[in-house]
Amino acid sequence: MDLGLKGRKALVCAASKGMGRGCAEALAREGCEVWITARHADVLEATAASIRKATGARVTAVTGDIATEAGRQAALAACPEPDILVNNAGGPPTGDFRNFTRQDWDAALEANMLAPIFLIKATIDAMTRRGFGRIVNITSVTVKQPFASLALSNGARSGLTGFIAGLAREVARHNVTVNNLLPGSIATDRSEVFVASHAKARGISREAALAELEKEIPAGRFGTPEEFGEACAFLCSVQAGYITGQNILIDGGAYPGTF
Ligand code: NAD
Asked: Which InterPro entries does this chain map to (predicted)?
């Protein structure tokens, strides 16, 4: 299916690895011009080169921390009027909330709630004026199924989710959609940390820990950044123009509820 995205400009945040990269590559394959951001220039440039080679798309790397005003300004200076904005940043640390400081909470809110809100604020009015816009926020299954040890993620991402629910309805009539993609277990560097900590807690090998975790997922495996990226590209498509304000799980069926 042609997703109708040829020539669209896509700004994909935190995209040198993992799901951000998956989204950038899928959008590039659909003919978008893509800007990718991350904090480390060398890894980011290598990713940009690899996406260019795989897709033939124009890909620009913008180095910076998206959780800071300076990082966001750099991204917006390079791509001031994206048609597509994919918000993403690294996840906060896990732990007992009793041990988290004010600084920990501020960092989680900056990265996983305020960074997307400020990037949306800077770009959405131009999208409504042009009559096309697609915003996808990478959040987490923790929005629907919170875990106590992911207190920072539960809190910060739920704040973003509430904000998006109101915003999506305000801009829908201008063909601007705003949706959240909720990863369950996707095979990335981040999920490797969880596999390692499960292995340590159970006193078993990494492979045995992974097998235990996979057994809990109805699909019987972790998802891939590539299939996550394809879902993101579909949400950005012309065909998905009537899907907005949604929280869509990509979790291989792991979330057990009906709604
Ligand atoms: P990852 O570690 O594989 O990749 C993260 C990417 O973001 C890297 O390119 C990194 O350089 C970049 N990055 C991190 N912080 C940044 C910042 N402040 N500014 C700019 N770039 C930054 O991670 P992932 O697994 O793709 O996770 C993406 C998001 O999804 C995270 O917030 C994570 O917590 C969340 N999540 C992941 C899973 C999973 O199973 N992988 C599940 C639920 C939620």
From this structure: NAD(P)-bd_dom_sf, SDR, SDR_fam
